[in-house]
Write a structure and sequence with these properties.
With 357 residues, the protein is α/β, with parallel strands linked by helices. The protein has 16 helices and 11 strands.
Length: 357
């Protein structure tokens, strides 16, 4: 049987969109058909979002994207004003990005491990598998406990996930940034903290943070404790839509992040504000439209709910690690982001929705 050290020997390398210009590839795909032409149109729509000085851009992340090597793309989008808010699953933000911010890695699995025949062996070695990547369970427990430590240091009250993730960014800035800079590393959570880009995880407890918060609440007993208020998440994101009526969505996968971001248009209406539908929308997904799931529901369908305009929308039926470097890379190398002003929506929220409310 191989040792744990042998299995965890080859770290995932995150794709660097800055050094790989896909413009010629995307331009060539524009003259093709099927998913190639769809992807080229999606890249054009994302560039339109960047060119539109009034547009606030929301990036939605579902699925295991950071562990797959896309982290640096999202970091560069934050650092270069290519996104103004993020709505994500907790796994991408906590189990994967914050986890790597603490100094840990995801690893390339040997080909035979993808078949699942050795999962019993992996469990004995405290190794977790995400298809063809591996993660050290013992290190993941440290990540769990770090979220508990962050919660323990906060006043006991309900927080939006955005508020709590900002505390995680502060923790990385204080405890790990020097090492990260020395090693040439970065983090979505850290970059968002420093660039005032709010991150929302509507199902925040469904990740490592959940284990840490369970431990925190158990230890506090009947005393004041930290909790996560998903309604406050929804309210805060709706306030951003009201404050910035022109918006665009860049959605990877579907599920809760997709629905949460789309629903703010309806939520604004519930609050008595007539906010326009999202002007731009791109979704990358492999889900099948025939199964009735939200992840596969088309953006045209969302228009029937009054959420997404149909003038600039595009579905791309592709796996994210193939499509995202091309779409985001096209936007980056177009240079359109250079004329954008950082919206710093975290500051907008802190002014509009005081802590504790």
């Amino acid at each position: 049987m191989p040792t744990k050290e042998q299995l965890l020997a080859r770290p995932i390398t995150h794709f660097d969109l800055k050094s790989s210009d896909p413009t010629a590839v995307v331009e060539g795909m524009r003259q093709m058909a099927y998913s190639a032409r769809d992807l080229a149109r999606a890249a054009d729509i994302y560039k339109r979002m960047l060119d539109d000085r009034d547009c606030g851009i929301m990036l939605c992340l579902a699925g295991s994207l950071v562990s797959a090597g896309l982290k640096q793309i999202f970091v560069d989008m934050i650092r270069n004003r290519m996104v103004d808010a993020i709505v994500s699953t907790g796994a991408n933000i906590v189990d994967q990005d914050f986890f790597e911010g603490l100094g840990f890695k995801h690893y390339i699995a040997e080909e035979r491990l993808k078949a699942g025949l050795d999962d019993d062996m992996l469990r004995e070695l405290h190794i977790d598998r995400i298809y063809d990547t591996l993660i050290d369970e013992d290190e993941l427990r440290i990540c769990d406990d770090t979220t508990r430590l962050i919660a323990d240091a906060l006043p006991g009250r309900p927080y939006s996930s955005r508020e709590f993730i900002r505390e995680m960014g502060s923790y990385l800035a204080e405890q790990h940034k020097a090492r990260m800079v020395q090693q040439g590393e970065d983090s979505i959570v850290l970059a968002a903290f420093e660039e005032d880009v709010p991150i929302f995880c509507p199902a925040f407890s469904d990740c490592s943070a959940g284990f840490g918060l369970v431990a925190h609440q158990h230890a506090r007993g009947e005393g004041a404790k930290v909790s996560i208020d998903s309604v406050k998440d929804f309210y805060e994101l709706t306030q951003l839509k009201i404050a910035n009526p022109t918006t665009g969505l860049f959605m990877l996968g579907g599920g809760v992040p997709k629905n949460f971001a789309q629903d703010v248009v309806v939520a604004a209406d519930v609050l008595g504000v007539e906010a326009p539908m999202h002007k731009y929308a791109v979704q990358v997904t492999v889900a099948d439209v025939r199964d009735g799931a939200l992840s596969s529901s088309t953006l045209k369908e969302a228009s029937s709910w009054g959420k997404v305009d149909t003038a600039y929308e595009q579905m791309v039926f592709s796996e994210a690690t193939l499509a995202v470097p091309l779409i985001a890379g096209f936007g980056y190398h177009s240079g359109a982001w250079k004329n954008r002003i950082a919206r710093r929506w975290t500051r907008v929220l802190e002014a509009a929705v005081p802590a504790g409310v």
